[in-house]
Amino acid sequence: MAKRENQGMQIGLIVCIVMIVLLMVTSVLFWKKADEAAKAAEQAQEAASVARLEADQSRQENQELRTMLGFAPDTALSEVQKSRESDMQLFASSFPEDKRNYHELAGYLFGELNKKNAQLADASAKEIEAKRALEEVRKSEADKTAQAEEQARRAADDLNKLRAEFIEDRQKLANAQEATKASGDKQVQTLSAQVKEQTDKITALEKDVTTLRTIREDLSTKLQDATVETMDVPSGKVIFASHRQDTVWIDRGSADGLREQMTFTVFDLDDTNPARSAKKGSIEVTRILDAHTAEARIVDEQPANPIITGDQIFTPLWRPGEHLHFAIVGKIDIDGDKQSDRQRLRELIHLNGGVIDAEVDEDGKRTGRLSVNTRYLIRGEGDGPEVNAALKQAQQLGIQWIAPETLMAKMSYQAAQRTLTLTKGSGSQSDASRTGVSSDRRSATDEQGSQRGGRAARNAP
């Protein structure tokens, strides 16, 4: 019995020992799991802390980047993108798509600014040279005018002296006639002859005075014409000419403010002053190719002196990168049909990028005002208080007067149909009737243009 109890106690002790061992093993396992979980939690917390630091740093960098771009730190990204698209459209429309960013744009704009500064410096130098030449012309014409005025003054003095002598002689004649009525027939005839001689001298002197006045007016007109000529400079040049296609390329484009349908007069490549140059032909812009290149059709030309590479182009209504200002005064009749062409003239000025500062219409109504920026006053027909006031103000401001027909001639304004000036007796032919012009003459013309055009003609597509 005691032996069985000992066996039961041993079994219970073994069971207890096994339970204790299992409990210890279980505790060790749970402790390892808890330790691994604690380490994982600690690592996760460290990762979260690093992520928060990186997020804060990214947020701070974004705010600094927005500030450097000129936006508020809390500006939404959509607003920044919208502003960036607007800036690129405004300042970099001709810039390559892959380079449309603020870093590349700054360098591009700086380069364009340097180009404009160089062009401005060149234009200033030309203006100084033109002013110097103008001053020389004015001085020369002023000397001639002074001489003419001195001659006119002397002639007027002689005329007054002769008039006084004539009055004195006439009085003497009257006194003599009164004293010698009975026996003075012969003496009367003699005195009458003397009076006629004096009268003839007075008439001759009056003619001389009129002639001298005309000379003085001509000199003043020449002085004004000389002033006009020195202010005209070429608007660009031809960089490629194709007579087979009746087209040319010019060195002006979108960056210069060029527009389609603008017309230019063409001069020889050696001529630098359009006011003194012979016209070779005219062209009309049909397509803007890039910032400084455009395509134009040949409106008219001279077969004996065709348009070639390097020829100068000119229009009084436009300058590269500028808006010329105009004033219109009086009735405007361009085509001589006695009808007002004022609206057509307005459209031509606006088409070529010009600005109308002031007008005095056919009824004498004045709108706008003249300023020192006004380049031309287009003088139409008619007079009146407002017309005279505008002309006087233009003279005070140094604004150049120009007749409508002169302006149209300088800009080669004509109908859209192209004409060729052929040899004497041949007249003018339209495009439809120019089939008689031989292909050999066209080939020779193209060959001449190619030889003088050089590299520009070979590189053109």
> In the CATH classification, which architecture of one domain applies?
Beta Barrel
Strand order across the biggest sheet?
1-2-5-4-3-6
**Strand-residue proportion:** 5-15%
The rough form would be described as rod-shaped
Structural class: alpha/beta
Helix percent band = 55-70%
SSE arrangement, N to C: HHHHEEEEEEEHEEEHEHEEHH
Q: Termini, distance in Å? A: 124 Å
Report on the architecture of this protein.
This protein is α/β, with parallel strands linked by helices. Among the domains are: 134-230; 236-315 and 424-459, FlgT, C-terminal domain (Thrombin, subunit H, Beta Barrel), CATH 2.40.10.410; 325-410, BRCT domain (Rossmann fold). The chain has nine helices and 13 strands. It has helices at 2-68, 77-91, 102-179, 185-230, 342-351, 385-397, 404-410, 439-453, 455-459; strands at residues 236-242, 247-250, 263-267, 279-290, 293-301, 312-314, 325-329, 355-360, 366-368, 374-379, 400-402, 419-421, 428-429. The strands form two sheets. It has a six-stranded antiparallel beta barrel. A five-stranded mixed sheet has the order 9-8-7-10-11, sandwiched between helices. It is rod-shaped and about 215 Å long. It starts with a helix and ends with a helix.
Supply database-style keywords:
461 residues, alpha/beta, Thrombin, subunit H, Rossmann fold, 6-stranded antiparallel beta barrel, 5-stranded mixed beta sheet, 13 strands, 56% helix, disordered C terminus
Provide the fold topology.
Elements: H1 2-68, H2 77-91, H3 102-179, H4 185-230, E1 236-242, E2 247-250, E3 263-267, E4 279-290, E5 293-301, E6 312-314, E7 325-329, H5 342-351, E8 355-360, E9 366-368, E10 374-379, H6 385-397, E11 400-402, H7 404-410, E12 419-421, E13 428-429, H8 439-453, H9 455-459
Parallel strand pairs: 5-12, 7-8, 7-10, 10-11
Antiparallel strand pairs: 1-2, 1-6, 2-5, 3-4, 3-6, 4-5, 8-9, 12-13
